[in-house]
Amino acid sequence: STNLSHTVTAGIVSAKGRSSVIGSVDYQDFIQTDAAINPGNSGGALVNLEGELVGINTAIATGGLMRSNVGVGFAIPTNLAKTIMNDLIVEGRVIRSWLGVFIQDVNDGIAKALDLPDRKGAVVTEVVEGSPADKAGFKVEDVVVAFGGKKVRDSSHLKNLVSSTRPETKQDVGIIRRGRSRTLKVDLVELPQEDVILASNRTPSFSLGMRVEDLDASMARRFRLEDSESGVVVVEVSPSSAAAEAGVQPGDIIKRVGDTEIDSAREFRTAISRVNDEDSILLLIRRRGGSIFLPIELN
Predict the structure, then answer these.
(1) Could you tell me the CATH superfamily of domain 13-91?
(2) Of 18, 26, 113, 290, which sits with the fewest C-beta atoms within 10 Å of its C-beta?
(3) For residues 76 and 58, what is the distance between their CA atoms, to the nearest angstrom?
């Protein structure tokens, strides 16, 4: 093959703060550029006209099965890379803070139902018992619009703001609750192990080791699902959990729990809670255009 080492490509920064770029990775805050990035370029430098490092090339958008560049590339910002590097050098691990809520983006339907002025912020869908958020007084349906003095764009932005803040600090969190603005003070702690989080949350779906959300337009885009699909979508599966052992995957659409048809996350949690005394539960799942049954062992 042609030796093309020491190649430099040029382009512009077309966006910042991009998320939902790489599968189900939790923390994403990418610089978007049209400078050509091709397979094998990951880990290379994204520099400005002064030769200063501004990002680490990480991913590209591809057209279907093609692996070549189609004009959209993504790089990890230098500030984020430096923080992670310093944590690894000093602590031997990445240090992240934990708020203790499960969140989703605000769509048009949620904005209308909660009487919000726009779609900015992140709506709380679960509060982990005993978490910093629980102790600070967070409630389901609270919409987080500011964190640490910064406005929150969406759920991914809030995750990044929380994770990049040092643990053992007190932060002001701006929320909208039932149409009224409030400020909650929260004492952040270091992100615990995943099994600790799951064990501390009494919601039945978490005892199975998976998290579900209503299947709206944003979730359909995230998991590349058909717009015509309905139900609830699995957004997270804990490794070695009952759900994982049964073969449940992020992006699966749950259509039925036992004999109960499911149209919302609330209906799913209710259905799960009613079968806790049984040895197993049968889920009807839509995956890649087809339907399958998956039995989950409860004990």
Answers:
(1) Trypsin-like serine proteases (2.40.10.10)
(2) 290
(3) 7
Contacts by 211-216, CB closer than 8 A, 24 or more apart? 211/102, 211/126, 211/235, 211/236, 211/237, 212/254, 212/265, 212/268, 213/104, 213/125, 213/265, 214/264, 214/265, 215/253, 216/107, 216/109
> What's the rounded Cα separation, in Å, for the pair 215 and 65?
26
Say yes or no to pLDDT of 77 above 60.
yes
Task: Give residue-wise pLDDT tens across range 225-241.
Answer: 887 777 899 988 887 78
State how far the Cα of 245 lies from the Cα of 12, in Å rounded to an integer. 45
DSSP H or E stretch at residue 124: strand 122-127
pLDDT score for 183: 96
Whether pTM exceeds 0.90: no
Please, which residues bridge with residue 287 across strands? 290
Q: Which fold has domain 97-190?
A: Pdz3 Domain (2.30.42)
Query: Looking at the chain, how many residues does it have?
Result: 299
Q: Which residues contact 88 (CB under 8 A, 6 or more apart)?
A: 94
